[in-house]
């Protein structure tokens, strides 16, 4: 018999809540965007209080649409944009500063300083992550350096650190009145403060990044009962939490070694399940925790992280105004037969995997009097596919496995033009599921597993459904020509920010 599950997906651009049947069908959902705050070039912030207000609003709206109460939900899961760093007052629940978002580059000087101390290899060996502006530890260090007295208050446990899952879980379970200060192990694996092998905070890393242990949340598995919700979800057991990319991996049922998925959201994140031992990449990929489900052995993944994908579509919408809604990019891109030799390298936050070049900045290359906004739209869509191809090549080389087909999800995977171009570029089928909300679905699966709605991962795998398969048609010569031009454009984006 089908049971109802809930999941809150707190993403980079919006927050949504879904109610779904345990067989995977979505009953109702509501979504709300939050403000993107850009105080300086390269800086990106969110108001964590606004995010919490939006979370409550979408929960209420979804329950009303589904005509159910929180007590009808067998369990609720949370999934979130990762790395984004919140520091808040334990007594009042007020954030001490805007949250610093994962794509923010303000910590580049700190990256360079720690690299100059020769600590990069040690940090990577312990955490699976390169030194980069992307991860939480340096963002938290920046907050401690900039907010007077914050480090001292944190050392007394009066100021609490969390990624967005922690912030939401603390608030959902009571906030200042007894809220649970937790982080799930997948999110903890993105802080650069946790040892990947042991899934514990690492004392040496805490010293390197100058972080007092008292402000850190307790690390929990991704699937267990963390507590009972209060407020809009009163009475529902909170039982699942994963970073959004890990949730999508579970939502796509990538539960066997070699299974991979690519999620096209604000950024683009390709994860491959590599099984029960973490393997450190030699090709510029991250090693990360895939998930840890209750007492079961943890499962690890290799990840290729691309900072800007759908965000480029939003940039064309918000900063240039050449489209009014994201989905309009498809028609604009189809108004031209090809990219007209225009390439858009969206290195707005430097380049992430596999290059890790903090000094790169965005460029549009190949413009002539012939170029028009259709070519720019097409180049913007194609940029996600070129970056994915590069990450996939690194992953195949690193993991030593071939990929028979690429599973995709996320808002931007709605673009048929992009999905066809992706299949052409990687010369392998791209498989789109019947619905793209697999991040939220994955968090609901984790919650359902914890309370026995699902007995095993096989139960989950039975619910994934393919809806469309894009097969490659491009000639090898055309593919090689396009890739060579893209690489020429990438070379020109490097070394801009120094
Ligand atoms: N039809 C579409 N074509 C291209 N891009 C799209 C389309 N629909 C949504 N997007 C882009 O996808 C992103 C939203 O996807 P989503 O998975 O909700 O992201 P996130 O979880 O990062 O907020 C936005 O950046 C948006 O511009
Ligand atoms: O919010 P998304 O879907 O763009 O995902 C953001 C990632 O978790 C950042 O690491």
Automatic annotation (TrEMBL):
Regulation: Inhibited by fructose 1,6-bisphosphate (FBP).
Top-level division of the source organism's lineage: Bacteria
Carbohydrate kinase FGGY C-terminal domain ranges (all copies): 261-450
SUPFAM superfamilies, per the entry: Actin-like ATPase domain
Sites where the protein binds ATP: 12-14, 266, 310, 314, 411
Pathway note: Polyol metabolism; glycerol degradation via glycerol kinase pathway; sn-glycerol 3-phosphate from glycerol: step 1/1
Assigned keywords, A-Z: ATP-binding, Glycerol metabolism, Kinase, Nucleotide-binding, Transferase
A GO molecular function held by the record: ATP binding
Enzyme Commission number(s) from the entry: 2.7.1.30
Residues that coordinate or bind sn-glycerol 3-phosphate: 12, 82-83, 134, 244
GO cellular component: cytosol
Positions that bind ADP: 12, 16, 266, 310, 411
GO terms (BP aspect): glycerol catabolic process; glycerol-3-phosphate metabolic process
Carbohydrate kinase FGGY N-terminal domain segment(s): 6-251
Catalysed reaction, written as an equation: glycerol + ATP = sn-glycerol 3-phosphate + ADP + H(+)
Family indicated by similarity: Belongs to the FGGY kinase family.
NCBIfam families: glycerol_kin, PRK00047.1
Stated role: Key enzyme in the regulation of glycerol uptake and metabolism. Catalyzes the phosphorylation of glycerol to yield sn-glycerol 3-phosphate.
Full protein name: Glycerol kinase
Organism: Methylocystis hirsuta
Gene: glpK
